[in-house]
Amino acid sequence: MSSLFPARGAAAALVDKISKGLNWSLNRRVTLFSTHGTRLRYYRMLNWRDVLVPRLERRFQAVRRRARQEGFWENLYVHVDRDHRAVSLFLGVHPVGLSLKVQNPKTTATEGGASLVFSQAVTGNVAVFLYPYDSEFMHQPEKLIVWRVFSSPTDITRRTIDAALVDAFRYWRVSSVLDGGSWWDRRRIGMLRRRDRYGSEDKALTTRPSVMQQVVSEFLAWWPVAAVLAFSGIVTIVTGWHDFTDKVGGTFHAVAGAKSPVSANAPQTHAAPAVRASAAAINPAQANHG
After folding, report:
1. String of b and e for 18-49 (b: at least 16 CB within 10 Å)?
2. DSSP string spanning 131-152?
3. Model pTM?
4. Closest by CA position to 208, among listed 20, 75, 44, 96
5. Which positions ≥6 away from 72 have C-beta within 8 Å?
6. Alpha-carbon span 61 to 165, nearest angstrom
7. How far is CA 162 from CA 155, 191, 250, in A?
8. 237-266: pLDDT as tens digits
9. pLDDT tens digits, one per residue of 11-41
10. Within 10 Å of residue 151's Cβ, how many Cβ atoms?
11. Angstrom distance (rounded) from CA 43 to CA 45
């Protein structure tokens, strides 16, 4: 038994030697005067000023012109604040009815404040904010929704800007007294609320985004969909795929107004196949000329 102790001592010495070697290898690569973070922030600021700001301004101006051409019910405006590193697309203020305030019984109430803002923090991160409509008739439970926070302006592509625009218009419809939005609009805004882990401009602009935080946010946003898919999978495993699909198909046919079952002894008549006429699409411009 005593012969085992020298072996343990040799193993401990070997581990200690390996640990010292690793520490020496790591420390010799560390410099006291690293400028990597400073250069990274410099390029982030440069990409914001020379790349992302012109791209956002061009895209927002295109959306504003298209809204005017299609007769959108509110004017859109674009503002670039170079001093505070922010680019915003915001809607105007419009009346929503007579005010209910006793001190101003005959004045007109208005709603406003809806905007989409891309803002860069001093660290180089870029945060995207959605601001809702607000009026004395309707208030949202939150001041804003932090749509997403990016580590660098280079992470924001044309597709990212378009996705933010789509969610911004959804938020504006849901928060407006004159609209209210569709069922999917309200569902999507609920998902964005659950995904927002910041809740304020200061926290979004002072906290560095992390991969784990993004994963948690996406899970909180999509967990209802995942629950439905999981339930469907359990039902499929328990009852069998064919039985499950037959039940779902029978439910849809019943909702569509399927006829009651006919007895096998009853005579059946087959109707002639109906002919469907395809209506030609009419161009609105041609219709106006006509």
Report:
1. eeeeeeeeeeeeeeeeeeeeeeeeeebbebbe
2. E--B-SS---SSS-EEEEEESS
3. 0.65
4. 44
5. none
6. 12
7. 14, 18, 39
8. 666 545 555 655 565 555 445 444 444 444
9. 777 777 777 777 766 666 666 677 778 899 9
10. 16
11. 5
Please tell me the distance from the alpha carbon of residue 237 to that of residue 280, in angstroms, as a whole number.
46
170: DSSP letter = H
Which helix (H) or strand (E) segment holds residue 69: the answer is helix 53-69
Distance CA 274, CA 56 (A): 52
Ranges of each domain in the chain? 37-206, 210-247
Alpha carbon distance 136, 108 (integer Å): 11
Burial of 174 (0-12, 13-18, 19+ CB in 10 A): buried
Cα dihedral sign, 200-205-209-214:
positive
| Other Cβ atoms closer than 10 A to 273 | 6
